[in-house]
From TrEMBL:
Protein name: Big-1 domain-containing protein
The organism of origin for this protein: Gemmatimonas aurantiaca
Gene3D superfamilies membership: Carboxypeptidase-like, regulatory domain, Collagenase (Catalytic Domain), Leishmanolysin , domain 2
Pfam families: Peptidase_M8
GO cellular component, one term: membrane
Region feature (Disordered): 132-151
Named cofactor requirement(s): Zn(2+)
Gene Ontology terms, MF aspect: metal ion binding; metalloendopeptidase activity
Biased composition (Polar residues): 132-142
């Protein structure tokens, strides 16, 4: 209250007091809290309140009080304005602090700073933050944000300072992107176009910092890394949107996958892919079945095949091809074919030869009226000859008939006369029981005998070639011998013919001539290792043809178990199971001589008749693991005979190209 007890001055209503000086009155009244004066009260009103309490003061005292109150000083401060103490704008990189922390000053109407006023700082765009969310002004009226950390989005960001009773102050910062962190694809990443043409959409990338903001001004390098295509504008700089686009991309001339790499310093780069499609077919080329030999009345061993190609020799699918026999050139089934979409290949059906010696087959296409290919085959009426000669009694009629049946089967498979060989050799040259020979051998002669070897149930028989023709590099002479102690068992269980057929295959070269002579053949890969395999072209193709399920290893798998004479010379039993030329014959079932084995003979150099193969398909159910249950299989232990191998020239001269293993060990 304005007229009460204050600093020792007491005014009692109705009671005379000591005389008051003007200075005393001034001190008393001016010591009243400033809020009284600033609340809108006036001296007159104060005295009015005092009079209501029956205070009687003389006119002189009133005059003195009025004089004292007139000396109370300035009017009270009211916030009227907020202003920035520095710049309202700033520049910095995203996720970093601006150089100077934003600050404002709260003033009254006369521009004087006001202390202890609450100021609130709020980020209004950009996602950053400030150190001081709220703070009171200092003695000079200033309030600092404490620091402004910008958000992660490039562009304009804003910060606002607010306080009651004054307009808000807005600070603006331009957030620049950080250094380039990655190149993101800004166009389709996989396209399709014809070889040697431009892709529809030139590849483009966007340079981005770690927060995904576009980064302008980045040097970008484009380069073709697969497919042999070409580009223009391989060096580009990203624009204001962070985009860099190659001038153009022309695909290479090879159909298939093509790749464009994009790189910039400080990034891992990125890649674009394109599938190059073959152009229209312009020609046909031969891929199989030309210049072969066959037998009159039988299909040629290899089906003639063509490939449709574009101007760059890429295979073209869906091209019709017609195969037409020439005059007196037999007949054909499946005369019209369509090229495969993936390989561009088309193969004739069965071309069965007529009686003329030289025969032709013409391949044409309705899409290529000026293109024509002619295949040639030589026909003969002479079948392949296997001359089996027994040394000793040759066993029973049953045994001899089994030999005849086996030889007949191989004659069906090997079509046409192969070669004549002059053989002049003394007795015992290949093995101690072989007689002397001085004659011209047509195709192959086999000396066979039934003799004790090692008792029942062990080595059933042994076979192999000992002479090859120098021209064909195929067997001209070999031997087969069987343990007489096992004959009765083989006859009783019905396995004799299959065992003889199997051993005769070794004389012809299956498992015995795959890598001989070394200068001419290398059909067995990985001998002695964990995964030996046969890699003849036809054998591999036929293995694929008889496989019902994909095979994940190296085709064609060769036996990797058992002793010498079993491993590295037979098909792998765990995969091929019942196939005749594995090292184990299956009991109580047939063991088919499949297209795989017939195809492998073609890889050796024989003219074969695939149609004579036994039906057989490999399924996952047929496969099993080593060791095998003895009751299920007959193990053909050590059935490759240890023989020297000689090459016979057209004049009959002999050259030793491989000594017997027993001789090599001495």
């Amino acid at each position: 209250m304005c007229m009460g007890q204050y600093s020792g001055l007491v005014v009692q209503p109705g009671t005379p007091g000591p005389p008051l000086s003007v200075s005393s009155m001034r001190f008393a009244l001016c010591s009243i809290p400033h809020a009284v004066c600033s609340a809108g009260g006036t001296p007159a009103r104060i005295w009015s309140r005092a009079s209501r309490r029956s205070l009687r003061v003389s006119r002189v005292l009133s005059s003195m009080a009025l004089l004292a109150l007139a000396a109370c000083g300035d009017d009270p401060q009211v916030p009227t304005e907020a202003v920035a103490t520095g710049s309202l704008t700033a520049n910095a990189t995203v996720a970093s602090s601006v150089g100077t922390a934003p600050m404002i000053r709260i003033t009254d109407a006369k521009g004087k700073g006001i202390r202890n006023v609450l100021v609130r700082w709020r980020v209004t765009s950009g996602g950053g933050r400030v150190t001081n969310d709220s703070i009171r002004t200092s003695a000079s009226g200033e309030a600092s944000s404490g620091g402004w950390l910008l958000g992660t989005t490039s562009g304009t960001q804003t910060l606002q300072a607010t306080s009651d009773g004054v307009p808000a102050v807005t600070f603006t910062a331009t957030a620049a992107p950080g250094p380039v962190n990655q190149l993101a694809r800004a166009s389709v990443d996989v396209q399709t176009a014809t070889v040697n043409t431009l892709v529809d959409a030139p590849p483009a990338v966007r340079a981005e910092d770690q927060f995904g903001n576009p980064v302008p001004g980045v040097a970008v390098q484009f380069a073709v890394t697969l497919g042999g295509g070409t580009i223009t504008g391989e060096q580009q700089t990203t624009n204001a949107l962070g985009i860099a686009t190659v001038g153009s991309w022309r695909l290479g001339t090879t159909a298939g996958q093509q790749v464009l790499n994009v790189a910039a310093t400080g990034t891992f780069g990125t890649v674009f892919g394109a599938t190059a499609l073959a152009g229209p077919a312009v020609s046909l080329i031969k891929i199989a079945g030309d210049n072969q030999r066959g037998v009159v009345g039988l299909p040629v061993p290899i089906a003639p095949g063509v490939r449709a190609v574009d101007a760059f020799n890429n295979p073209v699918g869906n091209v019709p091809v017609t195969f037409t026999p020439g005059p007196n050139s037999g007949t054909i089934t499946g005369a019209t074919r369509v090229t495969d979409l993936a390989t561009g290949a088309a193969f004739a059906g069965n071309w069965t030869l007529g009686s003329q010696t030289t025969q032709t087959l013409i391949a044409t296409s309705s899409l290529l009226p000026t293109v024509s290919l002619t295949f040639t085959a030589q026909a003969t009426t002479s079948l392949f000859d296997i001359d089996v000669r027994f040394v000793g009694d040759g066993g029973s009629t049953i045994v001899r008939n089994a030999f005849a049946t086996a030889a007949s089967k191989w004659r069906q498979i090997i079509a046409g006369d192969m070669h004549n060989t002059i053989i002049r050799q003394p007795a015992g040259l290949c093995t101690d029981w072989m007689p002397a020979l001085d004659e011209i051998v047509n195709d192959v002669v086999i000396f066979a005998r039934i003799t004790p070897i090692d008792g029942p149930g062990k080595i059933l028989g042994q076979a192999g070639p000992c002479s090859i023709n120098s021209g064909s590099q195929l067997s001209a002479m070999g031997i087969m011998e069987f343990d007489e102690d096992d004959m009765a068992t083989l006859i009783a269980n019905g396995s004799l013919t299959e065992v003889i057929l199997h051993e005769m295959g070794h004389v012809l070269g299956i498992g015995t001539l795959w890598n001989f002579p070394p200068s001419r053949r290398s059909l067995l890969v990985g001998a002695g290792g964990e995964d030996p395999y046969f890699h003849g072209t036809t054998g591999r193709a036929q293995f694929s043809a008889i496989s019902a399920m994909p095979y994940n290893g190296n085709p064609v798998p060769v036996e990797n178990t058992g002793a010498a004479g079993t491993r590295d010379s037979h098909w792998r039993e765990s995969v091929l199971t019942r196939e005749l030329m594995t090292g184990f014959l299956n009991r109580n079932v047939t063991n088919p001589l499949s297209r795989l084995t017939v195809g492998s003979l073609q890889d050796l150099g024989y003219v074969v008749n695939l149609a004579a193969a036994d039906p057989y398909t490999i399924t996952t159910q047929l496969r099993y693991a080593f060791p095998f249950v003895e009751a299920d299989v007959i193990t053909l232990t050590n059935d490759i005979a240890d023989l020297p191998l000689m090459e016979i020239s057209p004049t009959g001269a002999r050259t030793l190209i491989r000594a017997a293993a027993s001789a090599r060990s001495r």
